């Protein structure tokens, strides 16, 4: 699979995991708060801050959806950012040095974001089966090369396949990233997290994959890196004590720092080669076993399994030369010098 460029970030096996913090509407409609959240996200080490562009009158029927924090239409109206405000956020992200990302919830929002100059598209799980919207995004991606990040929560295999087919038909499947996701806020049953699906999506569709994670902690986000996730997305708030639909299920700044720190440690620990590492050598030198004289051995005496024994430290002839697999190189050879009891034999001690 080809590497994907997202702004200054690169997505692929030879690049760091991209960490996205989802601000969504947790700015509570305040530009000042949004900028503060961008600053804090940058300080935590996150790579991307993600917003949402809502056009409530276009994307939903007013009064039709009741959320845990009230009618969704009212919540969105209350926290609304205009396209001009999103442009200001985009410019502020460029100034701070963190990538801006935004989820559109209708085709009109797709056009607005594209006109604003977004560097990538991100769709939520609720948009997975909105094939006309995906077709629009795919066509834009074909013209611009912009990557598309697609969450797959609350869907079935056929629905995911249909969406991927859109990008195949438009010739931009190489720009597509699929996110494993469980659309519960938060998930109460960890068996629904389905982390093995990250690898299945990658192997089946031949695309990069990630984890959009709604848990209240970082454990499954860490584990997803081991399963091959190249992007991790978590909701973000300055404080869970605030009123609003997303604050209670979002990570606070210290938790994001822990997320970033943990992922950076895990991704460098994913090697598959077994060798003696430099930091292991001092331990190997004392912990491994050498060939040791079990009693005084005179010069010219034959070395046998009776006058030699394996003991620590490991600074001499390796103990493996006392086993029949290797013993022909040492056993029945003559001692080149007197070897007092507990001598750690070196190869120069045999004729």
In short:
The chain is of the alpha/beta class. The protein is built from eleven helices and 14 strands.
Structural summary, described in words:
The chain is of the alpha/beta class. It folds into 2 domains: 4-268, TIM Barrel (Alpha-Beta Barrel); 278-349, Type Iii Antifreeze Protein Isoform Hplc 12, CATH 3.90.1210.10. Helix content is 33%, strand content 17%. It contains 11 helices and 14 strands. It has helices at residues 31-44, 56-59, 72-78, 83-96, 107-116, 131-144, 157-169, 196-205, 219-226, 253-268, 281-287; strands at 4-6, 9-11, 18-24, 48-53, 66-67, 70-71, 99-104, 121-123, 148-151, 176-181, 208-213, 231-235, 290-293, 308-311. The strands form 4 sheets. Strands 7-4-3-12-11-10-9-8 form an 8-stranded parallel beta sheet. A hairpin with a 2-residue loop joins β5 and β6 (70-71). α1 packs parallel to α10. The longest helix has 16 residues, at 253-268. The chain is elongated and about 100 Å long. The mean pLDDT is 95.
């Amino acid at each position: 699979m080809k590497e994907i460029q997202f702004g200054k970030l690169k997505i692929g096996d030879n690049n760091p995991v991209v960490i996205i913090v989802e601000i969504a509407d947790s700015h509570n409609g305040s530009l000042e708060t949004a900028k503060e959240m961008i600053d804090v996200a940058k300080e935590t080490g996150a790579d991307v801050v993600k917003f949402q562009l809502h056009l409530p009158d276009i994307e939903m029927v007013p009064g039709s959806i009741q959320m845990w924090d009230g009618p969704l239409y009212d919540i969105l109206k209350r926290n609304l950012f205009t396209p001009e405000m999103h442009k200001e956020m985009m410019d502020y992200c460029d100034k701070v040095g963190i990538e801006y990302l935004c989820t559109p919830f209708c085709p009109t929002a797709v056009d607005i974001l594209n006109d604003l100059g977004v560097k990538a598209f991100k769709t939520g799980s609720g948009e997975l089966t909105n094939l006309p919207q995906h077709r629009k995004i795919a066509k834009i991606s074909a013209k611009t090369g912009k990557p598309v990040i697609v969450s797959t929560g609350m869907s079935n295999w056929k629905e995911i396949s249909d969406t991927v087919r859109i990008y195949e038909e438009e010739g931009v499947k190489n720009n597509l990233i699929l996110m494993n996701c469980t659309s519960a806020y938060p998930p109460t049953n960890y068996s629904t997290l389905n982390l093995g699906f990250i690898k299945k999506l990658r192997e089946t569709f031949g695309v990069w994959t990630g984890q959009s994670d709604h848990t209240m902690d970082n454990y499954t986000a860490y584990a997803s890196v081991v399963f091959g996730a190249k992007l991790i997305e978590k909701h973000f708030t300055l404080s869970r004590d605030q009123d609003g639909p997303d604050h209670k299920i979002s990570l606070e700044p210290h938790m994001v720092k822990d997320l970033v720190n943990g992922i950076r440690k895990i991704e460098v620990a994913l090697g598959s080669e077994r060798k003696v590492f430099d930091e292991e050598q001092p331990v190997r030198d004392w912990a491994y076993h050498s060939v040791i004289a079990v009693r005084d051995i005179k010069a010219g005496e034959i070395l046998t399994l009776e006058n030699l024994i394996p003991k620590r430290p490991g600074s001499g002839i390796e103990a493996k030369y006392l086993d029949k697999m290797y013993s022909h190189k040492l056993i029945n050879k003559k001692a080149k010098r007197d070897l007092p009891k507990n001598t750690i034999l070196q190869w120069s001690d045999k004729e």
